[in-house]
Amino acid sequence: MLHNDTLNLFVNLILLGLITGAVFYLLHLILVKVFKSVSFTYFTSFIMTSLASLFILQPFFQVSDEVILGYSLFWYVAQVVISHQYIRKNSNPFPLGWLIVSVILVLTYPSVSNYINEYSATKNALDEDVASVQTEIDASTEVENDTSEQTIDEPTTDYKNIIDHAKKHVVWIQSYDRVGTGFMFNSNGDILTNAHVVEVDGNPYIQFENGDEFQGTVIGSDSLLDVAVIRVDDLQGKSYLDIETTELPKIGDEVIALGNPRGLRNIGTWGEILDLGVDLELINGIEMNNMISTSTQIAEGSSGGPLLNGETGKVIGINTAADLKYKEGYSIPVEQFIEHVEQWTENPQPFENQASDEQEYEENNEPGYLVSEFEAINVISTFYDSINSYDYRYAYEFLGEDWKSELSYSEFSKGYTNTIHVYIDDIYINDRDTETVTVEAIITAEETDNELTYSRYRVSYEVGIEDGLLTILTGSGEVLE
């Protein structure tokens, strides 16, 4: 039993067959008078009937292109066969063609009806699937757009919310001869940072983003781990950043690094974890093991800042070092220091000067010296790392205010237009006083100006403290033969 839609479609097929035949026959009558060739006009009629039916009849009857072409081909074959039988009798083959088409349609009625029913069922199923998918899409879009119940405490990839929450607990640290970053990590008023930030000062000053300033006491420090804890009694009972102790970081995790680079307060940079278990050898020869490598940029002043999980906002490491050439940051993972930190918070240790033998603290950091030789050399190395990574703006920020007043940024960056890479062949301390250190270096500049050239220079820089930051106060250079 056919549905009403199926019966209507079957009637349409009969009408379509008859109309197609009529179009074919009329075209044949016209063309045979023009071309005088029966065979040619039959073929031409077939082509023209097919085209006319596709553009005119197909949209009206809503059948497939195959049905249209099938009818046109049928009329072409039927008319050729019938005309050859009756051409000698001058009879008109068209009425007989109508009869043949009608008989064929009636005989094929069961097969066609089954096909139509299957087609209708399939179409309805597809329509339902499309409607279902659209409903799911609409529902998903509605959920994504509904952020009314999101809170900062819930896992989120909204970096701005995480940074805004975290920077309330991140502090700027000013010790005797250097600056750095730290963060509150418990309700005892304890602050985590790098040991090298406070290694020569047991009572550093810390400052929050809102300007509140306190003086703390170092209650634990390990120069090999490069981790230290500062206690500020006035901060007991205050909120703090949670440390991730249950899940280990994974390569590809999104992360956020917070710090105070070059005196800028609470700057957050985001990226992802590139590698785990990385071993480093710093410029002073100290080795750091099992580090987290990230695509976040860590600059001078950011040492000791927190490395946060980009979804939960929990601390997974302490920012410690950077490779400006490859724009990678390195952080100490939580599992490497958490036991030591917990011991210090429970049993505070008396502060001991943590300066290493490699830095020759006794010789080069006597009371009254503001800049260590290690720091001065590190500033110059970092300056050229910035040049090699084409970060001229960051390199320019190392210059002192007097130097900047004589050399604009555009002039500074233009001087490196043809520079591909600068290699430091040798670097050493030439002179020092209580406030500055003079660093000299032999460098090779790889340059190109239509052709590749290598030029050697002897450069000299005076490094000192300006506005609490290590700064290149003056500089000069000469070309070597």
Question: What is the strand and helix layout of this fold?
Answer:
Blueprint: H1 4-35, H2 38-61, H3 65-86, H4 94-107, H5 109-145, H6 159-166, E1 170-174, E2 179-184, E3 190-193, E4 205-207, E5 213-215, E6 217-222, E7 227-231, E8 254-259, E9 267-281, E10 287-294, E11 306-309, E12 315-323, E13 328-333, H7 334-346, H8 361-364, H9 373-388, H10 392-396, H11 401-406, H12 409-414, E14 419-432, E15 436-448, E16 452-466, E17 469-480
Antiparallel strand pairs: 1-2, 1-4, 2-3, 3-7, 4-5, 6-7, 8-9, 8-11, 9-10, 10-13, 11-12, 12-13, 14-15, 15-16, 16-17
Helix pairs in contact: 1-2, 1-3, 1-4, 1-5, 2-3, 3-4
Explain this structure.
The chain has a 7-stranded antiparallel β-sheet. It has a 6-stranded antiparallel barrel with strand order 8-9-10-13-12-11. A 4-stranded antiparallel β-sheet has the order 14-15-16-17. The relative contact order is 0.07. 39% of the residues lie in helices and 28% in strands. It folds into 3 domains: 4-107, no CATH class; 159-346, Thrombin, subunit H (Beta Barrel), CATH 2.40.10.120; 365-480, Roll (Nuclear Transport Factor 2, Chain: A). It is α+β, with helices and mostly antiparallel strands and 481 residues long. α2 packs antiparallel against α3 (65-86). It has helices at residues 4-35, 38-61, 65-86, 94-107, 109-145, 159-166, 334-346, 361-364, 373-388, 392-396, 401-406, 409-414, and strands spanning 170-174, 179-184, 190-193, 205-207, 213-215, 217-222, 227-231, 254-259, 267-281, 287-294, 306-309, 315-323, 328-333, 419-432, 436-448, 452-466, 469-480.
